[in-house]
What we know:
Elements: E1 14-17, H1 25-31, E2 36-40, H2 43-47, H3 50-60, E3 64-68, H4 77-90, E4 94-99, H5 101-114, H6 124-127, E5 136-140, E6 152-157, E7 162-167, E8 175-178, H7 188-207, H8 213-235, H9 240-260, H10 264-276, H11 280-295, H12 300-309, H13 317-327, H14 344-353, H15 366-375
Parallel strand pairs: 1-8, 2-3, 2-4, 4-5, 5-8
Antiparallel strand pairs: 6-7
Bound molecules: nicotinamide-adenine-dinucleotide and fe (ii) ion.
Fe (ii) ion binds at residues 145, 197, 201, 266, 280.
Amino acid sequence: MSGLEPLTIDPTCRIEFGPGVVGRLPDFVTATGFDRAFVVTDKGLRAAGLVDKVLKGLEVAGMEYDVYDGVSPNPSTENVDEGAAAVRSFGAAAVVALGGGSALDAAKGIALLAGNRAAAAADADALWDAADGLPLVAVPTTSGTGAETNGFGVIEDACARRKIYLGHASVKPRIAVLDPELTLGLPSRVTAATGFDALVHGIESLASRGANPVSAAYATQAVAMVSRWLPVAYADGADLEARAQLMLGAHLAGQALTISGLGLVHGIAHAVTAHTGTPHGIALAAVCEEVMDFSAEAAVGAYEQAAQAMHVRGGTAIDAVRRISGGIDVKRPLRELGVERAMLPSIAAVALADPVTRNTPLLPTEPDILRILAAVY
Ligand SMILES: NC(=O)c1ccc[n+]([C@@H]2O[C@H](COP(=O)([O-])OP(=O)(O)OC[C@H]3O[C@@H](n4cnc5c(N)ncnc54)[C@H](O)[C@@H]3O)[C@@H](O)[C@H]2O)c1
Ligand SMILES: [Fe+2]
């Protein structure tokens, strides 16, 4: 962009970062103006013991709470409607979103529907201008999506086999509670998939048509931190330094994407997930280098900046991404992810129609996307 173009950057949420900082959750809830908490989470977090840990903190502080733990990976409109019914009967509260991107995204929809009692998740397109939702405190437990930085969720509309964007300015988290201790027990395959998501956020943000000097500052630092620390956290999940660096890096990548938008890697990955249920980061890894190859001629400067951030010597950003994804064993051919050949045209059409694809540096045609899919099948 030229140096004369006007810019509006809406400041994102308050950040509370540090090992153990989730212990101050009751204070963070109170800071939103409510003294009751409605926790949105999933069964995996229950099994990992993190829900009990957080609820204990609320109990010790004498805070009234209720919990909805039915969010599924790749949350659906059904999850959001079910959680909304629960919070509507619980009454006025701050919504505490505890989990990975799935719980955070679902919580935004649930908080929004609490303020719009007649609406359902499938009304997403009309809800962007609706009444305010309940305030949100986000407690991410994966280092990946950066979903704590924005006010929208990516929700699966199972009937339409597509992702919808459900959001509102009022449900952008007021506070992001970034406690790396919460990620110490994350299994290595989830560390790999979620961390790769953060890396792609940084790279696609740098190359996005919506990039500007502010998003590029966040994205460059994010790529540097995630590329350096993701392999370390993958190799030793108990390394708190690596977990902390990766968590902050993923958060910065979220700040970047919220300003700039993303691109075709996400467009295709959303479509693959909508057809097969593949975890988000795995779907990204399946096509990342190939989409970068396709986009390279339109993203020369961005990929050079990414390569510098990854300290590449004598290679390209694409080589560096290939090394990282190989090292954390995250890349699979589409046929191993449940994609059938007959699905490819539909995946290409859905990817092209996804709004995230509009910011990609080189706009593809449907045959372009089909060629990329065939190459990674
Ligand atoms: N809103 C945004 O800006 C944005 C950006 C990117 C992705 N997303 C969305 O985020 C979702 C993916 O989120 P994700 O990659 O964080 O995965 P996830 O939230 O689906 O979590 C993956 C699994 O890991 C488990 N888990 C999470 N934290 C854990 C922990 N600390 N210990 C043990 N187990 C744990 C969960 O229970 C779940 O089973 C997708 O739906 C994607 O579309 C949103
Ligand atoms: Fe993502």
